[in-house]
Amino acid sequence: xxxxxxxxxxxxxxxxxxxxxxxxxxxxxxxxxxxxxxxxxxxxxxxxxxxxxxxxxxxxxxxxxxxxxxxxxxxxxxxxxxxxxxxxxxxxxxxxxxxxxxxxxxxxxxxxxxxxxxxxxxxxxxxxxxxxxxxxxxxxxxxxxxxxxxxxxxxxxxxxxxxxxxxxxxxxxxxxxxxxxxxxxxxxxxxxxxxxxxxxxxxxxxxxxxxxxxxxxxxxxxxxxxxxxxxxxxxxxxxxxxxxxxxxxxxxxxxxxxxxxxxxxxxxxxxxxxxxxxxxxxxxxxxxxxxxxxxxxxxxxxxxxxxxxxxxxxxxxxxxxxxxxxxxxxxxxxxxxxxxxxxxxxxxxxxxxxxxxxxxxxxxxxxxxxxxxxxxxxxxxxxxxxxxxxxxxxxxxxxxxxxxxxxxxxxxxxxxxxxxxxxxxxxxxxxxxxxxxxxxxxxxxxxxxxxxxxxxxxxxxxxxxxxxxxxxxxxxxxxxxxxxxxx
Amino acid sequence: xxxxxxxxxxxxxxxxxxxxxxxxxxxxxxxxxxxxxxxxxxxxxxxxxxxxxxxxxxxxxxxxxxxxxxxxxxxxxxxxxxxxxxxxxxxxxxxxxxxxxxxxxxxxxxxxxxxxxxxxxxxxxxxxxxxxxxxxxxxxxxxxxxxxxxxxxxxxxxxxxxxxxxxxxxxxxxxxxxxxxxxxxxxxxxxxxxxxxxxxxxxxxxxxxxxxxxxxxxxxxxxxxxxxxxxxxxxxxxxxxxxxxxxxxxxxxxxxxxxxxxxxxxxxxxxxxxxxxxxxxxxxxxxxxxxxxxxxxxxxxxxxxxxxxxxxxxxxxxxxxxxxxxxxxxxxxxxxxxxxxxxxxxxxxxxxxxxxxxxxxxxxxxxxxxxxxxxxxxxxxxxxxxxxxxxxxxxxxxxxxxxxxxxxxxxxxxxxxxxxxxxxxxxxxxxxxxxxxxxxxxxxxxxxxxxxxxxxxxxxxxxxxxxxxxxxxxxxxxxxxxxxxxxxxxxxxxxxxxxxxxxxxxxxxxxxxxxxxxxxxxxxxxxxxxxxxxxxxxxxxxxxxxxxxxxxxxxxxxxxxxxxxxxxxxxxxxxxxxxxxxxxxxxxxxxxxxxxxxxxxxxxxxxxxxxxxxxxxxxxxxxxxxxxxxxxxxxxxxxxxxxxxxxxxxxxxxxxxxxxxxxxxxxxxxxxxxxxxxxxxxxxxxxxxxxxxxxxxxxxxxxxxxxxxxxxxxxxxxxxxxxxxxxxxxxxxxxxxxxxxxxxxxxxxxxxxxxxxxxxxxxxxxxxxxx
Lengths: 487, 771
Known about the structure:
By secondary structure, chain A is of the alpha/beta class. Chain A has helices at 7-22, 24-37, 42-46, 77-80, 85-89, 97-100, 139-143, 161-170, 180-188, 249-270, 273-296, 303-309, 319-331, 350-374, 445-455, and strands at 65-72, 124-127, 132-135, 148-155, 198-208, 229-230, 336-344, 381-386, 390-391, 408-409, 413-419, 426-428, 430-431, 438-440, 443-444, 465-467, 470-472. Chain A starts with 6 loop residues before the first helix and ends in a 15-residue tail after the last strand. In chain B, 44% of the residues lie in helices and 4% in strands. Chain B has helices at residues 2-25, 33-44, 46-49, 65-68, 90-96, 115-126, 157-169, 179-191, 197-205, 211-221, 224-236, 254-265, 270-279, 288-293, 310-330, 349-356, 382-385, 448-451, 455-462, 470-483, 504-516, 521-529, 542-547, 564-575, 595-599, 636-640, 659-667, 669-685, 689-701, 707-726, 728-734, 748-762; strands at residues 71-72, 78-79, 377-381, 404-408, 420-423, 431-435, 560-561, 769-770. The longest helix of chain B has 24 residues, at 2-25. Classes of the chains: A alpha/beta, B mainly alpha.
């Protein structure tokens, strides 16, 4: 046999060569079972959720699951985390060329004659053992300062939303690569038989909204079983989950039993193992019909938990509700839960945007950490909070007494992380006193992604998928694990 | 799911053991460079010792014979490869070494060789280390038909090749599939729809020696043929109804899509079909149809995001055209060479940008704001519709003489006269040395004197005599369409990292035959569909399924999950709802509310239509290829069934089986409404449950139920009927799904019971499968 004759086959052989050794203890039994039960075709094995043989997990994992609280549109690091008193002192003065160094700007401000600096009107204080700064827009997140690592030195290559979000989620600015959650589903499989391995929630705040694309949770060239499943508020949280009106669960069960009988007649006739796969997929669909509404039902959450997440928590589709649902899904073994909160893109009217949006996210984000902690889940769950880039230290548009805007800024931005594998109460990286360039410990998007995979027990250079002759990986061709932030 | 993986391990190991023992028996079996050696060298060594000069380590290259025979060492006294003497070859010493400083590939490369692979390299050198150029770059020839034992089996030339391969591998062919199965298989392959009753009747009554010949002719005459072919071509051409980035506003490209359907239905020869699309605008006195065809090159995404740097995106579009050209027509993935010399194939960045240069003279901008039709474009008028563009279905839009549609097309502008440069690391703002238009010389020579230096020359180059790739790539795609798997399984990659053809002589025979028949696509499809290979039963014996799970050696007929277009169109056709209108603006069938609004800005971002407005009436039931394609939020059902996102050229779809697909088939109102309407048909036509059942079985599966199936399904029907007789409210709720009115004369309980019986049938594996 020519080993490389089929890339899928090759891929599976790679999987299996490794897993065979680790499965030796059950090897004989499995072999027997294998030849009896299913003569699987590679293409159906490919779609198996049971990549959960954890082929790629070769480092001791520090977390089992991820919850990523994505702040879409880019929050301003300068109003929230990165305290720069100089900007207030120099208010209205032009950004020195020695700082900008001719770096490229978006065409929204590259034509501006002046780049007047502007500082935060919000007060900053230090919190916790690390002495991390938080503005008074983030009292709740400040209160968990001792649980989190704040990274002030994130940087990216993209200067616009579409490429920047795509870069952060998929490792490449142009579409066509799988999202982080798809990679994890592919690499680690599902911990749960009744729920998708990768779930996505959307919410929006009162701010300038930038559209998203479903490819941000798409599996691209990975099998579609690894696609993120968007969970929606309302009666059909997963598309087509609910049976039609007039058709209850018992009816569905009867139908599936009959379907299975008829499909089994076909197996006898056709001898095609794909039919058996189809039957099992219908059974999982049936289990999802009960398990998804169950896990999303907040009715049994006690009042003190609901209060923790704040007043919006029972309003479907809010960030607060989504945070609590994220905890519930994660608790049930969903590998990757991704929230998108839209509205941070404050080219103008920035102070108000930051006020509105922090009101949405501050309390629920902190509540999620506290909630996970008191359940003993924080140690095995990695929580990430952040947007796709930062915002400029200079004003976009008119600078008035109490209003201004900020353009996109890729050179530095702030995110924070907490939970499994992450140092508690730690600040990493530093920017210059203008908040424009990084002066210490830069973290590139690929470094961030490499670190995230490392925490999940995956070497980012080893988890690859061969497509069109090339081995693709989340971190493309770069990325270094940021060891310093690991506990 | 764990069980499935584990048992696959079982099969894989059995296979591996089987292969190993056969290899060991034939220790001196000749090792073939192209098929045995090069895949190993390419995959494990080329990254550092291949075509990419910048990445090359120790100045050693193994992709050329001269490089691999070089002398190395301080005294230049070590042979990397010494022909005939593996033990004196440095390469063998290195791959068998366990010293981490010496061993190759180095431990940190994560590209370790297996024992079997090491042995192949060793044997190959001992046997004299014969080199051959890359198989796909050598012109194909027809070899004499191979000798076969079972000489009564072949129906045409194809079968000699497949049978010889089967006999070599120890398989024997399956018998011919039953008539009704073949009729269904052929109908889906040609038209994407189930066969009509009248065609099948004619087939059954035919006394001809091969009754399928006339049946196939009839299928190819149906306009549905062009629609089915188009649904594959739209993936390749990355067709969309929106611009594709960020706000993702609408564009008008569907007149081009109408042309594609028209061209397939005219059976336009492939060389003309491709030439018009690549360079219709450059033909002498190009007419509007040729101009319209050139819109192929404008199907790429275009950004409308405020703040982007214009040139960055303009370059992106030119690169997209270049990549599409390469993948679609050459079966090569050139895009690696956009940033650095290709690591596996002999494609330098210079070669990449020389192809890029052909597509770089369009008078266009990277950023377009609020434009449905960015420049360059052509108007389509009422006069055109009654003339040269009479296939464009614009009746609802162009009513008055003054009305026009603006359609993006190609129009190179001499005044633009953009010079092309190698872009260092692919970056728009790092130009390197200048390049001029030139096609890939390693594939076939490009003579600027005869071909010129524009896109028309590039198109002509694809069809010069002895071009090694164009015909191979085409026939392989046709084979993939009919068998679910190409002879080269990586239909998008004929390069060093791609799969090797399972049956190279067959591929080459077909490629040459294609050219000898003037690039006639219908001829080629009929040829393949007339072979005994195609007409085999797809029922798998336990042994053939186990020994050849992918059916590489074709000892049974094709059997695989249909694409979503076919699945949904079958549902519509079976119910009688299918609207067979051809072409026109894309339509919006049922989609759960809110999907667009959740992701978009809302309000004015979609021309006052951020929301998806479900179409009413006949538009609801158009074939699936007409479904509106918003690229950032494609139809969710289609994404669930593995359709590509249409962001760039794709020539092959994944085929998975997932729980979300089950949910679509069970609960999508489209399927439920069709179940309901099919139920009405059965109730109107017949009275006996048994005869009604026969009708719905034939509508959904094109066959009668077996007695076992009949008993099971009728049992289900009666239990459903009892349920709805007791619960009329539930019945009425079911009967209100979808826009189609419920006829008042029918008993709700009975209708609901038949409806859910039809829904059961639509969910059968068989309904989703071509077999």
